[in-house]
Design goal:
Helix content of chain C: over 70%
Distance between the termini of chain C: 61 Å
Largest sheet of chain C: none
Number of helices of chain B: 8
CATH class of the largest domain in chain B: Mainly Alpha
Shape of chain B: elongated
Oligomer: heterotrimer
Order of helices and strands of chain B: EEHEEEEEHHHHHHH
Structural class of chain B: alpha+beta
Number of helices of chain C: 9
Distance between the termini of chain B: 74 Å
Helix content of chain B: 25-40%
Largest sheet of chain B: 5 strands, mixed
Number of strands of chain B: 7
Chains: A alpha+beta (642), B alpha+beta (268), C mainly alpha (221)
């Protein structure tokens, strides 16, 4: 497997400019002759499709939702980072780069991260010009807030709905191109395979979710911006439809899968309330600015109403363990501390499955100091949402929170051009692995999605197209397409024919429990080995015993679910194997064998590399490859937030 | 108040709309024996579907995605109310503690000609996309944007734009309107873009094009019932409709007196 | 501009609403004026007859008003009928359970109150303008006498009173609504305009109603 990252030579700060100057171009008159497929319409996909269309390429964009405006980027709350230094607090592209590398626990690629930091400023310019209503100061200029893991204020935000506003900006640009005819939108379409011709990605197979039609589409290049795989855990903050199928199918066709064990667990989510729950809801990280996290000091107090527990019997564990960052410790650290408290039997809230999994996020001190009005103004919408879901008034009693799966740093391996190990197959946004290392800082996912979509992909895809020339595009009824179509149809027929006695959802739930328990916030060898065996058993049972009703004609939600669960059942095993092989703790990957009194212990000697997995065929174990991380500018050091 | 626990459950009778493409559709009755009051409405629908699949029957198709009230994908008219009985809340954020034990709940799709039923509770809302494609944007080529702080926007204007931009495009306004009108949706986008300085160059063109696309998509006309505002999960107000009316009239008047495209008389 | 000429023969939804609002404003203004004039009945035959004579002595004013009113009424009816039919079709039946949250009785009955008022106007013109109906074939020179005679018939008076109450319902929604349609309303002003509209509707309706009631009660004779 060729893992040449194609990092341009020269000083870090000049790499992108030098590289762009050398990339090949396509003559404007020729662009309309090239056809590019973009799968996914979130920040990365929507922005890439809009920009490629605007440049003159023929673009087809696919999404599973009923409209590109609904991609899950829309749910991001907090903000987007940009090194504008509007606050005059010493920010710069270099500072943002350093924070991101450190936040990622020294497992991200330097050159990519530096480019991201450089592009961050253009993103904000672009979004403002599109009419994104970012928060402003009374003078009319843009406002900023601070976010975890940084000592400067560089986060731009639109109330608690920054993702929504940025996505609607990208959606408006995309809509304009659709209206002009340069982008053809295919909503309610699911990608079920990538088609390779002569080793290059030249098309995809999709299922029209409304008519059920399975169809081949050919193109000169394929761009996947299909999001992360957090739903392997069944319960996560991801949307219900988020899935690994597109990237997994690409992996099975030869694309390397990088660092699948890097998953982000967000500390402030509403706890699980019951067996039939399908979704976990995030409460913005910003709440930790004014809320204090605590649990009772002794388990015996856990059943008492929080107001009855006196101050001296409370353990403000983040303030105790991390006095300098306190309640604003980074996500991975805050999450693990909450888990520890609950493992010690000091969790709060109603018991689910016999365990109380929750900690208090208490605003009473802030309300006493600032008044309820100020807190309502800052977080009113979040308190309302909390009350809708739990029926509890967080002005009167502390919120209950617990960590939940939120984001996945791993993804398809890409080089500096965001091209995967399959030539012609590009990957952007959360679907690739490139910029966040082992832990993502708040407000940087939106930045990465838009950097990839607006600025990187349109440039690097053009270089690829110029390289392959105009003769490259095969017909969509060539032998490779027919074979791929047959594969997809066979798989659909197979899953429908089983007619067993368990629902696809029940398998998904069970898979989720396995990976959450053993490949979640804390992992160890024995647990991971058992998880791998359990997942294999579950997968075999799935293919013998799943029941899918409703057939394959027209809208078939059970068939869609079964297909996605089947891929998660394969992917889950790889995630656990990756976690097993990475014998260190870094960022969101915490191996209990590798710690210093609860703090992650990296092993830079053995693991300062990207782990890339290569598909070896069905039934064979994937092969692990390494792309070494060579740091030219940054020194490895231990993260400390104490 | 003590937290609701999943132990408190409801017995429910459900009348759910079943419709296949090309057929008229009808209600089907089902019962759920024990729905925890802590479950969301969509989790209750999941339970119904699980029950159906276990019985070898077809699950109901319904739209849903983020389940945190922001993507706008979930729909469903619940007891005649788009997004159900609690104002300012989407179906996915509606929880079962708002229903009574033994209650019969009627669940049907958005009803409007412009939103044809695709299956069961799923409707086609692409009319909204076509309205945005016609003019719901500010034309700005990637990379051509000026430095962000070159254009100051008064905070009050920015806040008002944000109020309108919060629209999630779910279609409850159309579904609740007795005329099947999309004016709240279109008004929200026109308001958002027409009051920002960045949106000025295309202001008239946008209003005219979006109204035209709205009419072509088969939505009804606004007769100022106010049902849309009362059912909007983001509580967007009729102000945006007044603004759209004003923008439209302004654009028509400007267009009427415009000399664009005609030879000018006399010198410049 | 072929595009705009097409817009004139097939106006947009907003365009039709603007027609509705402007013609509605003309008609609402007219009913207030008409009602004020009618109140001269209480000043005695001389006052109202002099007012009628003055109107007829100014044919330009009279005919301009009549033409404007006729055109407004025609456009109002045309827009109303078109909007209603289009809206019915766009609604596609609606949900099987009615759960109205906010729409007022007045707003929901606009097409019906409108149609009754149209029928009323036709009758009213035949009755008092052309003196061709419900006056027992008599012709009057005195407006006062004509009105008293006309309203002496209880069924006719009841029809007038009911129609004016429907006018009240119609105006109660319409007068506030026209501000919304012309883009001259916001959340802050909505309550005030709604109250103004209600007051306007009741003043007009009660003013009109007072005359047949006074005739039946024997106050005007």
């Amino acid at each position: 497997m060729n893992l040449d990252a194609k990092i341009p030579a020269g000083p870090l700060a000049d790499k992108w400019a030098n590289h762009k100057a050398k990339l090949r171009l396509v003559n404007p008159a020729n662009r309309c002759k090239y056809h590019v497929i973009v799968v996914g319409s979130g920040l990365a996909g929507g922005a890439a499709a809009a920009t490629l269309g605007e440049l003159g390429y023929q673009v087809s964009c696919f999404c599973y939702q009923d409209s590109p405006r609904r991609a899950h980027s829309i749910a991001a709350q907090g903000g987007i980072n940009a090194a504008k230094n509007y606050q005059n607090d010493g920010d710069s592209a270099r500072r943002l780069f350093l924070d991101t590398i450190k936040g990622g626990d020294y497992r991200a690629r330097e050159a990519n991260v530096y480019r991201l930091a450089q592009l961050s400023t253009s993103i904000v310019d672009q979004c403002v010009a599109q009419g994104v209503p970012f928060a402003r100061e009374y003078g009319g200029l843009l406002a900023n807030r601070s976010f975890g893991g940084a000592q400067v204020s560089r986060t731009f935000y639109a109330r608690g709905q920054t993702g929504q506003q940025l996505l609607l900006g990208a959606y408006s640009a995309l809509s304009r191109q659709i209206g002009l005819g340069s982008v053809r939108m295919h909503p309610r379409h699911e990608m079920l395979d990538v088609v390779l011709v002569g080793g290059h990605a030249k098309g995809i197979i999709t299922r029209d979710l409304v008519t059920g039609e399975v169809k081949a589409h050919s193109a000169d290049a394929v761009v996947l911006c299909t999001g992360g795989y957090g739903n392997v855990f069944y319960l996560s903050t991801n949307a219900q439809g988020c899935n690994v199928t597109a990237t997994w199918r690409a992996h099975r066709r030869g694309a390397g899968f990088a660092n699948p064990c890097y998953t982000q667990i967000h500390p402030t989510c509403i706890p699980v309330h019951g067996e039939d729950q399908a979704k976990l809801t995030l409460m913005s990280e910003s709440l930790r600015n004014d809320g204090r996290v605590w649990v009772p000091k002794v388990a015996a107090d856990c059943g008492r109403p929080p107001a009855d527990i006196p101050e001296e019997r409370r353990d403000y564990f983040l303030e105790r363990k991390y006095p300098s960052y306190g309640n604003l410790a980074p996500r991975d650290i805050a999450s693990r501390a909450a888990k520890e408290a609950c493992d010690e039997g000091r969790g709060v809230g109603p018991a689910v499955d016999g365990k109380r999994l929750g900690v208090y996020l208490d605003f009473s001190a802030s309300i006493a100091r600032l008044g309820e009005g100020v807190i309502r103004e800052r977080y009113g919408n979040l308190f309302d949402m909390y009350e809708n879901i739990t029926g509890e008034n967080a002005y009167r009693q502390p919120m209950r929170i617990f960590p939940a799966v939120h984001y996945t740093m791993g993804g398809l391996w890409v080089d500096y051009n965001l091209q995967s190990t399959i030539p012609g197959l590009f990957v952007g946004g959360e679907a690739n692995f490139s910029d966040h290392g082992a832990n993502r800082l708040g407000a940087s996912a939106l930045m990465q999605g838009l950097a990839d979509g607006y600025f990187v992909l349109p440039t690097t895809v053009a270089d690829y197209l110029a390289g392959v020339g105009l003769a490259g595009r095969p017909s969509s009824d060539g032998p490779e397409f027919r074979a791929a179509l047959k594969d997809v149809n066979d798989r659909v027929a197979r899953v429908l024919s089983i007619n067993g006695n368990r629902t696809a959802r029940s398998y998904h739930k069970e898979l989720g429990r396995i990976v959450w328990d053993r490949c979640g916030m804390a992992r160890d060898r024995a647990g991971l080995e058992r998880a791998i065996a359990d997942i294999r058993g579950l997968r075999e049972d799935f293919w013998r015993n799943v029941r899918v009703t409703g057939g394959a004609d027209g809208l078939a939600p059970e068939l869609e679910r079964a297909g996605r669960v089947a891929d998660f059942l394969e992917f889950g095993e790889l995630m656990c194997r990756d976690a097993l092989e990475r014998e260190e703790s870094c960022g969101g990957h915490f191996r209990t064998e590798h710690q210093d009194a609860g703090e992650a212990r990296r092993d830079d000697g053995r693991f300062a590399h990207v782990a890339v997995w290569e598909w070896q065929g069905a039934g064979a174990a994937q092969r692990r490859h390494e792309e070494p991380l060579r740091y030219e500018e940054v020194q490895f050091s231990t993260r400390s937030y104490k | 108040m003590a937290a609701d626990t999943p132990d408190r459950t409801l017995r429910l009778k459900l009348r759910v709309w079943r419709q296949r493409a090309g057929s008229p559709g009808a209600f089907e009755e089902h019962e759920l024996a024990a729905v925890p009051v802590t479950a969301s409405f969509l989790e209750m629908m999941d339970m119904l579907n699980e029950q159906l699949v276990r019985q070898g029957r077809e699950a109901f198709a319904f739209d849903h995605d983020c389940r945190e009230g922001i993507c706008g994908m979930c729909s469903m008219t619940i007891n005649g109310m788009p997004h159900g009985p609690i104002p300012g809340v989407t179906t996915c954020q509606l929880h079962m503690r708002n229903f009574r034990d033994g209650e019969t709940i009627t669940v049907e799709p958005w009803r409007a000609r412009a939103f044809p039923v695709l299956k069961d509770l799923v409707v086609d809302r692409s009319g909204f996309d076509r309205v945005i494609q016609a003019g719901g944007f500010i034309t700005v080529r990637t990379g051509s944007a000026p430095e962000a702080n070159n254009t100051p926007v008064p905070k009050t204007v920015s806040d008002e734009a944000m109020d309108a931009a919060e629209c999630i495009g779910c279609g409850a306004c159309v579904a609740s309107c007795k005329n099947g009108s999309a004016m709240l949706f279109v008004g929200a986008k026109v308001t958002h873009l027409s009051i920002l300085p960045q949106g000025q160059p295309e202001r008239e063109r946008r209003a005219l094009a979006m109204v035209k696309a709205m009419d072509e998509a088969g939505f009804g006309n606004c007769t100022n019932y106010g049902e849309c505002q009362a059912h909007c999960p983001k509580s967007i107000t009729l102000d945006v409709i007044a603004r759209l009316n004003r923008e439209y009239v302004r654009a028509r008047v400007k267009e009427f007196f415009s000399t664009t495209g005609k030879p000018r008389k006399g010198g410049d | 501009m072929s595009d705009s000429s097409c817009q004139v023969c097939r106006p947009s939804s907003v365009g039709k609403k603007v027609v509705m609002a402007i013609t509605g404003l003309v008609l609402a203004g007219f009913v207030l004026g008409h009602m004020s004039g009618n109140l001269l009945m209480f000043k005695g035959p001389a006052a109202i007859d002099a007012y009628a004579a003055w109107l007829h002595a100014n044919p330009l004013l009279l005919w301009t008003s009549r033409i404007v009113l006729l055109l407004s009424a025609a456009a109002h009816v045309w827009a109303g009928v078109t909007l209603t039919l289009e809206n019915r079709a766009a609604r596609d039946g609606g949900p099987s359970v009615d759960a109205t949250r906010r729409a007022t009785l007045g707003s929901r009955t606009m097409p019906y109150t409108g149609l009754v008022l149209l029928a009323f106007i036709v009758f009213h013109l035949l009755h008092y303008t052309f003196q061709a109906a419900a006056l027992g074939g008599q012709k009057f020179d005195s407006v006062y006498r004509m009105v008293v005679t006309g309203f002496s018939s209880a069924p006719v008076s009841v029809f007038y009173v009911v129609s004016m109450l429907l006018l009240c319902l119609h105006l109660g929604h319409g007068f506030s609504s026209l501000f919304q349609t012309l883009g001259l309303r916001n959340e802050r002003w909505r309550g005030r305009l709604d109250r103004l509209s209600l007051a306007y509707a009741w003043i007009v309706a009660l003013g009109f109603v007072s005359i047949p009631v006074a005739v039946l009660a024997g106050i005007l004779k």
